[in-house]
Design goal:
The chain is of the alpha/beta class. It has helices at residues 22-29, 78-92, 98-103, 116-120, 133-137, 149-160, 188-197, 199-204, and strands spanning 4-7, 12-15, 36-38, 70-75, 126-129. Strands 3-1-2-4-5 form a five-stranded mixed beta sheet. Helix 1 (22-29) runs antiparallel to helix 6 (149-160). The longest helix is centred in the middle third of the chain and has 15 residues, at 78-92. The protein is globular and about 45 Å long. It starts with a strand and ends in a 9-residue tail after the last helix.
Length: 213
């Protein structure tokens, strides 16, 4: 059992997938009221709803008694998520080559978070794509219940009007839409590896196979 983000009032569980703008999306989830982190009493991570020392967790799961809650899950184009992961590792190991990063056995370039859904026995009810957060949040009717649709729309616009975490790393390079430029790293061979291993996310987010180009 893991610590998990959930909202008991709105009956929502939030799977804040790492590398998918979880910090930005946390700004929305925490403004919906009564957001908390359910924590396993056997875990060494302690969280009190009245403290803000822990903002969110990346864990996926369903807290006991929340089986009827709907699940929100963050996803991202696997090509940009892969590059962002590599750039993070490169900061600590500048000798790491992108090709070696992709070809390391056991899928070092991704954590295959979607494989957990079968173990949990549930797929997400709502998907928030890093590339379209405002559009996707508006598809969640529970999200605007607390603060009203007008205020919710303002919250979305204010929260996602710019990427506050861009250009933090030496290899960061973004296009005019604020997305990591990835064709400087990929070859067709490397892109094919990522596509085949992460095809479920490509299909779920309607991401094009050639979107790395």
């Amino acid at each position: 059992i893991k610590n998990m983000n959930y909202n008991p009032k709105l009956k929502l569980i939030w799977w804040a997938t790492s590398g998918c703008a979880s910090r930005s999306n946390n700004g929305i989830f925490t403004n919906l009221g009564e957001e908390s982190i359910w924590y396993d009493a056997n875990s060494n991570i302690y969280h009190n709803i009245h403290r803000e020392m822990i903002s969110h967790t990346h864990a996926q799961g369903i807290p006991p008694g929340c089986e009827d809650y709907k699940i929100i899950c963050l996803i991202r184009n696997p090509y940009t998520r892969c590059v962002s992961h590599y750039i993070d590792l490169y900061e600590d190991n500048p000798k790491l080559k992108f090709g070696n990063f992709i070809n390391t056995p056991n899928g070092r370039f991704d954590d295959y978070y979607f494989l957990e859904w079968e173990k949990i026995g549930r797929n997400p009810d709502y998907i928030i794509r890093l590339e379209n957060p405002i559009k996707d949040w508006k598809k969640i009717p529970e999200a605007s219940q607390i603060i009203g649709e007008d205020k919710f729309n303002i919250l979305l616009e204010d929260n996602f009007k710019q990427n506050h975490y861009a250009n933090n790393k030496s290899l960061d390079k973004y296009d005019p839409n604020g997305h990591q430029i990835v064709n400087r790293f990929f070859t067709q061979e490397l892109a094919d590896i990522v596509y085949e291993k992460l095809k479920p996310i490509f299909e779920l987010g309607n991401y094009d196979k050639d979107s790395w180009k």
